[in-house]
Amino acid sequence: MKAATEKAAPAKGNSSAGKTAKTASTSAKTKQPAAKTPKAAQVQPAEKVANAANVAKDVKNVKEAGAKTTKDEKARRVKKDKVVRDSFTMPKSDYAKLAELKQRCLDGGVSVKKSELLRAGLTLLAAVPPKRLIAAVSALDTVKTGRPAKS
């Protein structure tokens, strides 16, 4: 009887020995039997191999189809320009014109962003003769660059 109680009690000098004994006895108590699955849900080993083979074939077919389409798409695709992020300063009146132009586009049934409006303006300016471009730029007031003062 003394031998059984000595094993369960932790040793004074070695505290980890007592924890190991407790953990072993606790884990033995908490183990539960494996849940039984119904026979309909169980898959036989031969069926598993067949399913794995079918999945492997499907994956291979998808990869081959994907490879063919990517080659075709790459040939047709036009390289996109990299996007550059920048900030600029403009008078409130010009900024209000952007809002007005956005509203005119919405009235026409087209949703547009400010950056798209600026790009469209650049496209239009690029199409005008140099004299007209210089006249348009000369008509603008110069604006102090940088962030506006807090008001």
What is the strand and helix layout of this fold?
Layout: H1 2-8, H2 15-30, H3 45-76, H4 92-107, H5 114-127, H6 130-138
Overall mean pLDDT score?
74
What structural class is derived from the secondary structure elements?
Answer: mainly alpha
The helicity comes to 55-70%
DSSP strand content = under 5%
Count of DSSP strands: 0
Region (Disordered): 1-55
Biased composition (Low complexity): 16-55
Protein name: Histone H1-like nucleoprotein HC2
Q: What would you say this structure looks like, in words?
A:
- Residues 1-55 are annotated as: Disordered.
- Residues 16-55 have a biased composition (Low complexity).
- It comes from Paraburkholderia rhizosphaerae.
- This is Histone H1-like nucleoprotein HC2.
- It is a single chain.
- The chain is an all-alpha fold.
- Among the domains are: 46-80; 92-138, no CATH class.
- The protein has 6 helices and no strands.
- It has helices at 2-8, 15-30, 45-76, 92-107, 114-127, 130-138.
- The longest helix has 32 residues, at 45-76.
- The chain is elongated, with a radius of gyration of 38 Å.
- The chain starts with a helix and ends in a 13-residue tail after the last helix.
- The mean pLDDT is 74.
